[in-house]
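Hey, I was hoping to borrow your eyes for a little while. I'm sending you its amino acid sequence along with the backbone structure tokens. Take your time with it, there's no hurry, and the full record follows here.
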Amino acid sequence: MVTTHRGGTIILPCRYHYEHSGEEPASIRIKWSKIDEPASFTNVFVALGKEMRDFGPYKNRVSLQEHDPGDASLIIRNITLADYGRYECEVTNELEDDTGTVKLDLEGVIFPYYPRIGRYHMNFHEAQQACKQQDGILASYDQLHEAWLNGLDWCNAGWLQDGSVQYPISKPREECGKKETPTGVRNYGYRHKEDERYDAFCFTSNLNGKVYFLKTYHKMSFPEASKACEKNGDSVAKVGQLYAAWKLQLMDRCEAGWLGDGSVRYPIVNPRTRCGGTEPGVRNLGFPSKKYKLFGVYCFRGKGEKEQSTENKKIKEGISKWKSNHV
């Protein structure tokens, strides 16, 4: 297993036996695939001698390391959330072929999610889309299990990447599968992806930017909050972005603020009595009225976006100045 984060570069190791007295390297075929399911593969990269090809979302992001003959390791740049998973390396010559697998893991954080309409309202595909909209992907069982080992306790069942429905319990209680039931990740098994409805467990990784709490003189409705972020050239932060800022950048802010989905939350690293409990986490105040309830706002600024916004402003000012001098 190799581990990295979103936006990083990683090498998936793969070696094969090569003899200088044997066949020419041009006759050796190297193929990398992503294993989607036990019998389903997605092409990533193929090389036959000097002829090489990358595929789909991996285009222009992958290449062979080729430190020496026998090295078929794959370099993946600008890692995305979707790159998470298992990969197969297949090396073939005229007489035989050999395969090996490696898992690409991501540093990140799990966040439970349900929409404004309430809990247990999403089928599998809707849960996939909800995670994507909040800057995440559906979590794997391994990711949920690791989050449970680190103390995640959530009493509502949610979809996972493999189509199963599970939930992590660190503190057994009657309303969550009975108090005498052992701790662990409770499993409802594989459910009907179209007809059955649950919450989602999403996963996100390193932020390609920064979340910040916008300081204003007064609290705002959701439309006002959106305009306030936009005025700075930024956007209202997504749920996954706030979780990443909390977990990976240790953002600690005891002020409730709007997020892009219309929910109101705030991140706590160092728990204190006036900030909602004794455990660290992202506090959730639900989905208040966007029009009538007033809060602060968490904005998101992508890397390079501020510089681009400033440059655009300078260009506009330059054009305006030119017009005033030439009219």
Remarks:
- Residues 305-326 form the longest helix (22 residues).
- The CA atoms of residues 205 and 250 lie 14 Å apart.
